[in-house]
Design brief:
The complex is a heterodimer of chains A (about 350) and B (about 350). Chain A is built from 13 helices and 4 strands. Chain A is mainly α and about 350 residues long. Chain A has a single domain, classed as ABC transporter involved in vitamin B12 uptake, BtuC (Orthogonal Bundle). In chain A, the strands form 2 sheets. In chain A, strands 1-4 form a two-stranded antiparallel sheet. A two-stranded antiparallel sheet of chain A has the order 2-3. Chain B has about 350 residues and is mostly helical. Chain B contains 15 helices and 8 strands. In chain B, the strands form 4 sheets. A two-stranded antiparallel sheet of chain B has the order 1-2. Chain B has a two-stranded antiparallel ribbon with strand order 3-4. A two-stranded antiparallel sheet of chain B has the order 5-8. Chain B is globular. Classes of the chains: A mainly alpha (about 350), B mainly alpha (about 350). At the A-B interface, α5, α11 and α13 of A face α5, α11, α13 and α14 of B.
């Protein structure tokens, strides 16, 4: 039993171990890496990525993929900037509206994916086109945000002991991660997501609300991207159609490095958070190194992604054989042992 | 594996090609009505000029990538790294050719860092290596194609930017411009490249059993292996071929704009290419492919873009229009949708 438990948590342990190792490496190599503010900056600079990645985690656990997240972030910044600066809306109304837009886009894609049995990959690809295109329809130029509420939130610093600080985005980061953990592990919705990822057919046969859950998963992902968009707007204080290009790849990378299997059924939200922190650490390491160009970040992320996919394959093969032997089936049973 | 009778095969191909060609014709007809000068072709300095020629020239990279991607999709795989390969190939060729102004006596001459054929071969070799890598991950490690190529999409752009040093490299070597801007017998040179690749692919795929093998992998890889087809090596070849196509497209793009931009070259190409393949009648689920259909699909996309430019709608709208086209095509490819909307007619179409 303990052996099984360890096997299940192995990817997560590898991820956390890797994070500690990388951070330790930085601390060993560079003075000032252990400065608490450097650690907190990981959260400040990657809050939007983590918020998106939490939504993506649910999608990938269910066996799907969402390529539209980067564009939805861009759309959110663009709509916010336009409404604030050109139409002079109330910031609260703007935030509510962009969250609704994100959720609606996600819901629409979920409906198409479930009811017309289309591949999630191509539907969200079209969603990506659509959201980017809508950005350009609003404006092809960058719109700077000067709204007092937004600038105040953006510049607000919450002081922590030891002369350090965090931004409001970090609070949102932790709220979203906590909500994600709760949703994934302590609700009926979360368990259904895991069940769908394990085997959709079995989930249907068990009488689980597959249709509703699948639509909700994409709605959640769209909503998370919109929240990430709001966080990104606070971070950048501008709206631009070219914001967050390639963010979907970073989010997927974070989820995979966080130990979620791309075939679905296995994964954790907390792992995703560590995945994001690993990506952030790579970036910080390269900044501290100084002479390497920032392009190395992408290459290192690519290599990590490859290693984790390889690990997943080995893991899957081992698991597949065992269960295949036990049940004469191909896919693992979805439900976690409760 | 019983290949259907040739007459039936030809009829199905004809029917499949009918819709993309009709869409293209309708779009051209719309242009004829809207901008009368659209079909006007004139001869300047022995070259043909006009909107139609322009569409053909600009669609060349997309057509090439679509040809490669069609084969990948036929094996029920996907290659989303083609845009990154375009960027790498362009960056490499630009860096190797470079070109500096040298004064020889009173004559200004441009010299390359390495001879042009070497640079081109190097770019194609690196593209092939990228494809081999994708194919290796898919066929030997057994990764899902989307994941395997995702790795290259993340690392590939980083590599391209590393080659260009994060800057846009401008090429100053005239002979190289011929690939993307030159004319041969009045037609753009890039078009001949596309035709050559298309002919070669069609001959290989339809003239030999290779096409059938590829379709067999898409339908049932396991049965395919039982039938004695070396699916692993074939997959390796298909992904390599797709990447080489993307590499050639990278050369054309790079030559056309006379520079290489690791960040933006080939951005969203993978999406356009997938759209072209799907428009051409090849289903994402694999098992059947239509090479000419994909080329027509690429032409549809370029015509759409050109049309949007020529009728004065802001070009930014292109993305939105493409999104709706993808949605529509997807819906019509979905058997469920056709059954829901068209009742029994859909059923008949769904199972031909």
């Amino acid at each position: 039993m303990i052996g099984k438990l360890n096997l299940k948590h192995l990817p997560l342990l590898v991820t956390i171990g890797l994070f500690i190792l990388m951070y330790g490496l930085g601390a060993y190599l560079y003075d000032g890496f252990l400065n608490p503010q450097v650690f907190l900056n990981l959260f400040i600079d990657n809050s939007f990525l983590c918020v998106t990645a939490v939504g993506m985690t649910f999608v990938i656990i269910s066996g799907g993929i969402d390529l539209s997240v980067g564009s939805v972030i861009a759309l959110t910044t663009m709509v916010s900037a336009h409404l604030l600066e050109v139409s002079h809306w109330n910031p609260a109304a703007v935030i509510v509206l962009v969250l609704v837009i994100g959720a609606c886009l996600g819901c629409l894609m979920g409906l198409l994916i479930h009811y017309f049995e289309l591949a999630p990959f191509i539907v969200t690809l079209a969603g990506m086109f659509l959201a980017r295109g809508l950005c350009y329809l609003i404006s092809i130029n960058s719109i700077a945000i000067t709204n007092p509420f937004y600038t105040q939130v953006s510049q607000y610093r919450i002081s922590l002991p030891g002369d350090t600080f965090i931004s409001i985005n970090v609070i949102i980061f932790f709220v979203v991660v906590a909500a994600g953990i709760y949703l994934a592990h302590y609700t009926r919705f979360g368990r259904t997501v895991y069940a769908i990822g394990g085997s959709e057919q079995s989930a249907v046969l068990m009488g689980l609300p597959v249709a509703r859950t699948k639509v909700l998963i994409y709605t959640l992902s769209g909503f998370c991207s919109a929240v990430a968009g709001v966080v990104f707007t606070f971070y950048m204080l501008s709206g631009y159609g070219l914001h967050a290009i390639g963010m979907e790849m970073d989010a997927i990378a974070a989820v995979v490095i966080g130990g979620t299997l791309l075939t679905g059924g296995v994964g954790t939200v907390i792992g995703t958070m560590f995945g994001v922190l690993i990506l952030g650490t790579i970036q910080t390491l390269i900044v501290f190194q100084g002479t390497l160009s920032s392009w190395w970040t992408k290459i290192v992320i690519g290599i990590l992604l490859f290693l984790f996919c390889l690990l997943q394959r080995l893991f899957e093969r081992g698991k597949g054989h065992k269960i295949q032997a036990a049940l004469g089936q191909h896919k693992a049973l979805p439900i976690q042992r409760v | 594996m019983n290949p259907p009778a040739p007459s039936l095969l030809r009829r199905v191909t004809g029917a499949k090609l009918f819709w993309p060609v009709l869409a293209l014709a309708l779009m051209l007809l719309f242009n004829l009505a809207y901008s009368p000068g659209f079909f006007h072709i004139e001869i300047k300095d022995g070259h043909l000029y006009g909107s139609l020629i322009d569409i053909l020239n600009r669609a060349a990279p997309l057509m090439l990538i679509s040809i490669g991607l069609t084969l990948v999709i036929a094996t029920s795989g996907i290659d989303i790294s083609v845009g990154a390969v375009v960027a790498i190939s362009g960056a490499l060729v630009a860096m190797l050719i470079g070109g500096t102004l040298v004064l020889k006596g009173n004559v200004q001459e441009y010299v390359t860092l390495v001879p042009m054929p070497v640079a081109i071969l190097a770019a194609l070799a690196v593209s092939a290596a990228a494809g081999l890598w994708n194919g290796f991950l898919v066929s030997r490690i057994g990764m899902q194609p989307i994941v395997a190529t995702l790795i290259l999409i993340v690392a590939g752009r980083g590599a391209a930017q590393l080659i260009t040093g994060g800057q846009i490299i401008t090429i100053y070597y005239k002979p190289y411009f011929f690939i993307g801007n030159g004319f041969l017998l009045g037609l753009p040179f890039s078009l001949y490249i596309v035709l050559a690749v298309l002919l070669l692919t069609v001959l290989l795929a339809r003239g030999t059993a290779l096409g059938l093998f590829i379709e067999a992998i898409g339908i049932n890889p396991r049965a395919c292996r039982m039938a004695g087809i070396n699916a692993k090596n074939l997959l390796l070849c298909v992904y390599t071929f797709c990447a080489v196509c993307a590499g050639v497209a990278g050369l054309i793009v790079c030559s056309n704009v006379k520079s290489a931009d690791g960040n933006n070259a080939g951005l969203f190409f993978e999406l356009d290419a997938i759209l072209a393949v799907v428009l051409g009648g090849t289903a994402m689920t694999g098992g059947k492919f239509y090479l000419v259909g994909s080329v027509v699909g690429a032409l549809i996309i370029q015509t759409l873009t050109t049309t949007i430019y020529s009728i004065g709608v802001p070009p930014e709208i292109t993305l939105v229009v493409k999104a709706f086209v993808v949605f529509l095509v997807m819906m019509f490819q979905s058997g469920t949708f056709r059954r829901t909307v068209f009742g029994s007619w859909g059923k008949r179409v769904a199972k031909p």
